[in-house]
Amino acid sequence: MEVKEKTGEMSRRQFLTAVGKIGGGAAVFSVMGTLGLLSPETLKAAEYTPPNKNDLVLANRNGKKIIILGGGIAGLTSAYELGQAGYDCTVLEARTRPGGRIWTVRGGTSDTEITGAAQVARFAEHCYLNAGPMRIPQFHVTMEYIRKFNIPIEPFNNVNDHAYYYNENVGELSGHKVRKRAAKADVRGYVSELMAKAVNQQLLDLPLTPEEKEKLVNYLKAEGDLDKDLFYKGSSRGGYKDEPGSGLDAGVLRDPFSMKAILNSGFGNFFSSEYSYDQQMMMFHPVGGIDAIPNAFEKRLKGVIEYNSEVTEISQGESSVTVKYKDLKSGKEKTVTGDYCICTIPLSVLKSIKADFSAEMKSAIDSVNYASAGKIGLQFKRRFWEEDEQIYGGNTLTNMDISSIYYPPTRYLDKKGVLLGYYAFGANADKLGAMSPQEREKHALAQGAKIHPQYYDEFESSFSVDWKSVKYNLGGWVSYTGDQRQTIYKTLCKPDRRVYLAGEHMSYITAWMAGGIESARSVVTEIHQRVLQE
Amino acid sequence: MEVKEKTGEMSRRQFLTAVGKIGGGAAVFSVMGTLGLLSPETLKAAEYTPPNKNDLVLANRNGKKIIILGGGIAGLTSAYELGQAGYDCTVLEARTRPGGRIWTVRGGTSDTEITGAAQVARFAEHCYLNAGPMRIPQFHVTMEYIRKFNIPIEPFNNVNDHAYYYNENVGELSGHKVRKRAAKADVRGYVSELMAKAVNQQLLDLPLTPEEKEKLVNYLKAEGDLDKDLFYKGSSRGGYKDEPGSGLDAGVLRDPFSMKAILNSGFGNFFSSEYSYDQQMMMFHPVGGIDAIPNAFEKRLKGVIEYNSEVTEISQGESSVTVKYKDLKSGKEKTVTGDYCICTIPLSVLKSIKADFSAEMKSAIDSVNYASAGKIGLQFKRRFWEEDEQIYGGNTLTNMDISSIYYPPTRYLDKKGVLLGYYAFGANADKLGAMSPQEREKHALAQGAKIHPQYYDEFESSFSVDWKSVKYNLGGWVSYTGDQRQTIYKTLCKPDRRVYLAGEHMSYITAWMAGGIESARSVVTEIHQRVLQE
After folding, report:
1. pTM
2. Chain B contact present for A8, CB below 8 A
């Protein structure tokens, strides 16, 4: 009971630490579970115990010099966590800002892709594009740093049934913009009708009691909004031709699409994009741009990050790591030596950097592929999606090249806004990426205008990113095959003598900031343990 | 083309007005539709043309004196719209604040229910309970006033898959708190499996081509996350026993519940609560409390609202309406006379006010029922739902009396927070409403603690509302039967000589602020037309 009473006064972290000191690792979770304080799942974040200065003192060790390559989220987390424990860290970052792919493009932001395509963003005040990560699941470890650093957040509207599906070459509904609610109501309606009737008519051999079958039918009635005879005949869930109003105006329901039309439309295949573990609501993002996260780390890493530092060579001695880098400001070649190195450089970039890694490690790094991903921010002088179409955040999905349009989940009711004109992957991203920024803009406008005819009247300026063409990234995120996870990935997970790899690519939470953070925390823990045992 | 080019420079309202002047009513929508500027649906908001001062001048008429009974959203809208057109309005409001059911309870707010139960809220700064309306669908007319009055808004997290379902007496899963994502994944998985196999084995007589059947099966595979043999064997959508992490930690999926267990749990019947037209994401609410809406109206109605004015009698002469009311401050009886009256007093209250309505109208008012609804705000000294359970907004649903728990969709990461400890309707609301505020608190804590054991350690104070017991409301919202809509409702919709009824109860958008607004706009239009033709 003493422990239980104490928890009221303690933070979860303090409690974990306290119980951890009494009972050690596994016991913590069992106690927390018994008290009902832990959620049924084990979150990665809860498993981490930061390295502690006292451990070093107790072990009669000093904090070592750690060279961290790359100032993205993995590098920043490593430097922050090791710094808190008294380690001397240097982060080498080629750019003049922290964050890596965590990049907010604002008015004045400039970039030249490796093809030579140069852009300068002409976005207005408060208008921005989160070119890389843009949303955070509420249970990701990222939220822990947001909390620790007091970063203001707001919801990221990942689900909006008032936005549209729009497909081409899908039969009857080709070229129709259909509110998501309408497609969902019709698909769920027809499928539930078929299923409910099949259960009712004993067409299915179900391992269920009659009472359970009745429950199943009742569920399907609720799920599909079926009438008492189990028919789907449209539903208010799908919306109205004419909304209900005041007085005698009861409204007029929309007519459902036919089962054939809605089935052929392919809209149903979009539904599950909202179901995936890390895309389910609620999601969040920092107010004013995702770069609030790297900026908050940077503020706490004064003198630790060396910008304009392009790594050119990594080499290891008996008990040290030496990194050569080019100071992009002076053009001079510089050298730094430390006890350990955490290399967070994307493998797509690392493979071209000279390093005395083992042959196995080299070959592993060489064989990894990165995903294609591209975005364009379109600034409009009027938020017509809000004003004319009542869409506040969320996305419209389409089978056109642009794949999706995301409405800004921030500063609602403002005059201007930056709409994400496409967020494309794979072949679509490659096609768009191969275009010049001017062509991308033209293409995004032409396809987007099919859904929003207001585009041409309201458009002001754009900024686009093809991640495969962005220097120091050369890809959206790592993309392992199942085989690679069993082979080369295991090699990448082992330190190459004194060099440890970290980043989203060193996790099973790829493409997420949380992958970079979790990976950094693991490596930090490994290095700390090694130092204690040295 | 001239019109199209013009629209870029004009607001939608200006455009509607301009085209309306050229072509008149119906033509507006047809032109807007052709230009693709209107959404496929006809929104009520777009149909309203505010009364215009110039109309009165042209018709050689003066604005008249309008007496408005009730300072809720319908009364405020009426006074605002008529005031803009030069009418002389007086709003009589019994309370000392505007808004009626639009009520934000803050520290210091006091209220005594008709049973004599008195409460004073002891909420901390920034902590509040929206005791009545708390969320706004993005397409409701309410957003138009929010835009017009520049009221800051933020999302209302009506959907959160990281929150729970918790049911009792439902077999195997009784008393288990289950993340919504897990229940959704399992139900969709099993149902899709059954259906996909039935389609594949030609058990169903479907009016579909083989190609369409394949599309249906593919949809079901995506919907249920089925394997290649169409089995549901769990899904990452349902979450993990142990989340994926860094390095070699691929995570461990949770085991799905059995089909029988999940079917008997009743969780599936909760899903459709998120599907209904006006509960779909995205939803919004004003930052800092829903009373920002009535407060914004009040600011624009200086000298128009007379507070502390309890209406005691409504009587009509040949060409006037006289309203007697009690000044609750002085205790004096007062009288006001006008040309017309808009009565927005809930029918549950109006039926006890002396009025010389027609017998038909009186009988109609008498026969209307109001819904039971109750809420309790529980202030906790720590946001354990965010800190321990990573739940940021959204709701947990249960078959216990408390029905639901809503996590505050605002000021995330704050220390304290007011959680909606129950939002109950019908019999549950009656049961809780019959209790004293102390008993309600005790009951809400006891049931809520089954889901969140942190309750007792973290609880600070509560404030509860039973709408049937709130003076000047006596009910949550109107509740017509289908028959009543065809009979007495039609009577209520006709003015009784010079008295017009308005409010959510005079609409098909009952229980929503939008119903009150739409109703007010209709009545305002009717009165204006009548004045023009006098």
Report:
1. 0.93
2. yes
